Amino acid sequence: MATLYRTDGRMEELQPANGVNWSLEELQTLVGGYIEVTRTVDGRFLVLDEEGKLKRKDLNIFATRLYVYGRHDPIVGDAVVIDTRLEINGPDEEEESSCPTMGSGGVHTDSYYDDGICQTCGAKKKLPIAAEEEDDG
Are 110 and 103 in contact (CB under 8 A)? Predict the structure, then answer.
């Protein structure tokens, strides 16, 4: 689930075509160009057109208020706010997480949602290697 903030003040709740995560093409269509991903003041992900200022797109007041650096750097063009990294990237077992809650052995130390997704970064829960071996036996 995501919220599209349009420059004219309209907001739309949207879901990705596959119902799980956004494709690059979907996000590029929504923002009208190559995407840039940054953070909101409450830790969500803000997707915008990385060339929006060069294209002289209109100011987006609502997205600017959400942007972590909005007081100094306004957002232009339509922008999408997405709750977790998983919704942007999708699951990727080989990708090393940069989550601040990641402990040794690739195991998160933070809380998980009931579906095994990290509340901080959206990564899938990994079992410790010893636990994985015990489950196979």
Answer: no
- pTM of the entire structure? 0.66
Name residue 4's amino acid. L
Q: In sequence order, what DSSP letters do the residues of 19-42 get, joined into one string?
A: SS---HHHHHHHHTSSEEEEEBTT
Domain ranges of the chain: 2-89, 99-132
Residue type at 36 in one-letter notation: E
First to last CA, the chain: 38
Q: Going residue by residue through the chain (137 aa), what tens digit of pLDDT does each one get?
A: 899 999 999 999 999 998 888 999 999 999 999 999 999 999 899 999 999 999 999 999 999 999 988 889 999 999 999 998 878 776 554 444 456 555 555 555 555 555 566 656 666 555 544 444 445 54
